[in-house]
Write a structure and sequence with these properties.
The protein is an alpha+beta fold and about 425 residues long. Helix content is about 65%, strand content about 5%. The longest helix has about 40 residues. The model has no long low-confidence stretch (mean pLDDT about 85).
């Protein structure tokens, strides 16, 4: 019995929901591309070429790599490369539609039936990606077929699962298992260990989000300070009304990438902006760059005091250590206190372990962010863009660990017990 939705088998309903997502997202990307074509922005290309470009943008919005080839300036040599860079704002669009589809699937089924709707949605979306990957192939751009199937399925799957969980209200209802009952049946030691690991994980997330917020603030200030320079680049490009809108939307789509690159910069690890170019608080080596307005915000001039920016990850770790102290789940310290008679030693070891654990967690989150934010723009110097994921992870892990230890030690003195009135 269905509470809502059309009276169809769940597999078919999931497939229809996924096809709606695919079509809506395709239209969103097709409108600006076709708009530029209508204003003559793509030269003498046909409407078929504009539609193929729309499909390529659809695939790129799902992180699909594109093989790109072109002819060199001599008119004979063929140059090829792989475009792996994905503007991170693009995948948010299919994710939001998939989140909505997941909620609709959840309304139409019981908890033990959800897999049917999700499976139908994944198969249909993967098939749409497969067809798109073949349909938009040209002599110059060739999508990876397996990636055209799998990457859209991953984006849709994440959105659908989160959407179904949102509608179900809890993961327990989503998977049909009462986790509270399972936890209640476990031993006290297991529950303490689970609480400690959960607190560590949440603290690492607090540190990571603090780093993201710091990077976003630094980026916003840099863009504001170089607003006039960016406006001059717009005037030099002369893109026209529709072209200017497309250029602006493309830059907005890159904002999440720029935030991650700024994270890498303030950590001290820095990032690469083309072959032979590297930017960090300690050095700036930049070669020729394309005329893109947001590139005017790159740090230039004297960087003598730029090393102070590495204090921002330490402050993020400090906030995470303070949060952990307020959470009150340091069961590892309680365990060491029973095993080691010298309190100064047990406390030192537990605090050191806390800093390392939270730092490693924040470093892993940063590594993932660095991995998805960078890549190659295809051919030429811009075949290397973004931070080195493990290098920035190591820097962030060390800085956050120092901050966590300091925050955990200092935070008790920053707390104030509430005064009880008579």
């Amino acid at each position: 019995m269905f509470r809502e939705g059309i009276p169809l088998p769940l597999v078919l309903q999931g497939a229809l929901e996924a096809l709606q997502v695919a079509i809506f997202v395709a239209l969103i990307f097709a409108v600006p591309v076709v708009g530029v074509w209508l204003t003559g922005g793509w030269g003498n290309s046909s409407i078929e070429s504009a539609l193929r470009l729309s499909g390529q943008v659809w695939l790129k919005a799902h992180g699909v790599p594109l093989d790109i080839s072109t002819v060199a300036a001599d008119g004979v040599t063929e140059i090829s490369g792989v475009m792996t860079l994905t503007p991170l704002l693009f995948p948010i669009i299919p994710f939001l539609f998939a989140w909505r589809a997941g909620r609709r699937i959840a309304r139409a089924s019981y908890a033990d039936q959800l897999w049917q709707g999700i499976a139908g949605a994944l198969v249909a979306y993967g098939f749409f990606g497969f067809i798109t990957g073949f349909a938009v192939r040209t002599a110059d751009v060739r999508p990876h077929i397996w990636a055209s199937i799998l990457m859209p399925m991953i984006i849709l799957g994440i959105g659908v699962v989160i959407g179904t969980r949102r509608e179900a209200g809890s993961w327990s209802r989503l998977i049909g298992v009462d986790l509270s009952e399972r936890i209640a049946q476990s031993s006290q030691a297991s529950r303490w260990a689970g609480s400690y690991v959960a607190a560590i994980t949440k603290s690492a997330f607090v540190a990571f989000m603090g780093l993201v917020a710091s990077a976003a603030l630094v980026l916003a200030i840099a863009l504001f300070m170089h607003w006039a320079d960016g406006s001059n680049v717009y005037q030099q490009l002369r893109p026209g009304l529709v072209g200017g809108i497309v250029v602006t939307l493309a830059q907005l789509a890159m904002i999440p990438n720029l935030v991650v690159w700024t994270m890498a910069w303030i950590s001290g690890a820095g990032f690469t902006l083309g072959v032979g170019s590297h930017l960090s608080p300690f050095e700036t080596t930049v070669g020729p760059l394309p005329a893109i307005p947001f590139l005017t915000a790159l740090p230039t001039g004297s960087l003598d005091a730029a090393w102070l920016f590495i204090l921002l990850p330490v402050l993020a770790g400090f906030a995470a250590g303070w949060w952990f102290m307020r959470e009150g789940e340091n069961h590892f310290d309680d365990w060491l206190d029973r095993k080691i008679q010298m309190r100064w030693l047990s406390f030192s070891l537990s605090t050191l372990f806390l800093g390392v654990a939270v730092g490693v967690g924040a470093g892993l989150l940063t590594a993932f962010a660095a991995f998805i934010s960078g890549g190659s723009a295809g051919i030429g110097r811009l075949s290397e863009l973004g931070p080195h994921m493990w290098l920035v992870a190591a820097w962030v892990a060390g800085e956050v660990a120092i901050g966590v230890i300091a925050g955990y030690l200092v935070s008790p003195y920053l707390e104030r017990d509430p005064v009880l009135e008579d």
